[in-house]
Each structure stands twice: as structure tokens, then as C-alpha cells.
Amino acid sequence: MKSLVALIAGSLLTAQASAAPLSNDPKHIASQWYQAFARHDAKLLESILASSWVDIPSPPGTPHGPEAAKAAMTMLVGAFPDFDIKIDDVIQEGNKVVVRSTITGTQRQTFAGLPATGRSMKIQAVDIHEIENGKIVRTWHTEDWMTGLRQLGHLPR
């Protein structure tokens, strides 16, 4: 009987130890970035970004941390009220997660000093998120804004 109890207890402990909590899974944490932008959910950004989060590249003088990401979200959603982002691919290597995504939106307000056109865009983006202690500490990103600006009518085709 004692050995049966030990076997059951051991099995339960092993099962608990092998099941990684979703909140610490780098892929899950990185995917929440896209959920936040797709849902226009600034609170979610606050929960996944480290207070020292750095956006690379970012304009000179841009603050670090969740406030910077929330400002970017506000600007994007203001210009593109239907702003959406979908994950296409996710690759993880250690504590870094690479995500290829598709961004869509219709320009209804000024964007980067360019007047609203009412046109829609669909562009690709690639981000690398570095995760430490369950938070995104750094994000390297690139978006195909040349294609987007052409689709919006701001650049010749």
C-alpha cells in the first residue's frame, strides 16, 4: 500500500513538473503581443512587457517600456481603426521567438504625417521577441511599409 501511494504521488509530481505553465512559455508570451494589437488591448501589453522593454529600431528619444508600445498602438489604431495583425509563422530558439505576421488596416486618419486616403493595406512584418522572466524585454522588428504606403496611395506604384 505504501508503495502504491508513493507511485501515485510520484506520478502526480512528475505530471505537474512536466507541464510548463502557459504564462512562462516564450511562444505563448510572444503570441500575446499580437493578440494585444489585434484586440487593441493596452492592458495586455502592460502584462507581457518588462518595464524596461526596448523597441528596436525606435526613433531617437522614444521612451522604453509598455508606455512606448501603448503609444504605438494608439497611433496605429487611430490611423487604422480596423488595424489587425495575424500570426503566420512562429519559430523559437532559446528565449527568442521569431514571428512572421500580416498586418492589415484601412487608413481613416493621418498616419506619419500623411493624410487619410480611405484605402486599405496588407503588409508583412517580422519580429524577434526576447523573453526573460516571463516578460518581453526586447523586440526587433521590420515591417514592409514601402508596400503599405504604395497600397495606401502615398507612393507611386
In short, what is this structure?
With 157 residues, the chain is of the alpha+beta class.
User: End-to-end span in angstroms?
Assistant: 78 Å
Q: Give the overall form.
A: globular
Strand content: 25-35%
In terms of per-residue confidence, which ranges show pLDDT below 50 for 5 or more consecutive residues?
1-21
Radius of gyration: 20 Å
Relevant terms:
157 residues, alpha+beta, globular, 5 strands, disordered N terminus
What does this structure look like?
This protein is of the alpha+beta class. Helices cover 38% and strands 32% of the residues. Strands 1-5-4-3-2 form a five-stranded mixed sheet. Helix 2 runs antiparallel to helix 3. The radius of gyration is 20 Å and the shape is globular.
Topology:
Layout lengths: L1 H17 L7 H14 L2 H7 E8 L9 H14 L4 E10 L2 E11 L13 E13 L2 E9 L1 H8 L5
Parallel strand pairs: 1-5
Antiparallel strand pairs: 2-3, 3-4, 4-5
Helix pairs in contact: 2-3
